[in-house]
Give the backbone structure.
Amino acid sequence: MSDSVNVEPSGPLRGELRVPGDKSISHRALICNALAEGEAQITGLLDSADCRSTIACLRQWGVEFKETGDRLIVRSPGQSAFHPAADTLDCGNSGTSIRLLTGVAAGLPFRSDFDGDASLRQRPMRRVLDPLAQMGASVSDANTAPYWVDGSNETLQGFNGEIAVASAQVKSCIVFAALRANQPSRIVEPGPSRDHTERMLIAMGADIEVDGPAISVRPGATLQPQDVQVPGDVSAAAFWMIAAAMVPGSEILLPNVGVNPRRTGVIDVLRDMGAQIDLTNQREMSGEPVADIVVRGSQLRSTVIDGDTVVRAVDEIPALAVAAALAGGVTEIRDAAELRVKESDRIATTSALLQAMGIQIDEWSDGMRIFGGNLRGATVDSHGDHRLAMAAAVAALAADPESGPTTINGASAVDISYPTFWQDLHQLRHVPV
């Protein structure tokens, strides 16, 4: 595929589309089962560059993986039998890989070196390294990758206190280290970040209790391997929900999507904007709530996105900004400074994307003000950010038909989380690939 894609404005989007497996749950199914001695099967794992980074790192510690049809088999000697990696643990573009595995490394009796691509090297890492240092792990003094973590002093203490940011990656890093500490930990969140790590570890036998924002971890429990069926990724589904909501006459069905309440901020925001979204066939899958999602085209209105809602929809903000661009009125996004340190500065890049497509935006340090209007075709850049590339595609679908196509440079960035995105886009438009 060329690294540039042209997307024409679209008529109604119709049909059924199965989105890829949840990226967050896929990472945790790999890591949690790697910590347990034995074998587990993962069905529906997201096959993306980010998840392959996690697999490659775990292999270096001695975990085996085997693909069998649509299943991935994890065979692990258990965390106690991990051996030092022969090379630097290269996490590619994956912030989840590097931050979660850093927590695991703090509980290993040897040094582990971490690195990533140019984008990952720009992302802040003291937020995980400082708590681990407080717990007694030896860590390098770097602010960003590359860096190292050494747990060979074997005196890892418990963690007690509030973490600095509402981040599931930071929380999970500390939880993984706390499993190997020599005393209990109590981790307090400043906001409701996604809770997939706690759910999965509890199901595997970890001695973890969740009481509101506080997570208590008592080390020493033996983890048991657990087969995991990964639900569809609500963050991937969000692009189609928004596209269908914006294009009149659309109606799409997204079956088998995870609807963990810590992840459904995007649905809440879209409903506030007047989108017609129904959750049907609600059930549980491997301890996670799942539903089939039906979305119909509707006239959207402006809203305010702030506070805890931002935490519950942080990955979907670029796409929600596209919805705001077509909504009546003025939408404000606040309390979203975390977007500055994602795969790109998503406040700056999202603003640039929509301005190029004819939308007036006021940008500030922790968000933006979006004046609803008419999108027009333009040439835009993903800045190597998978979510920005997909947000641009959604904007292109809803652009004024007379303005022509939108050219998206850096289109291959979608491989980070959704390698089949462009094929799925064609499917919903009934255009042969």
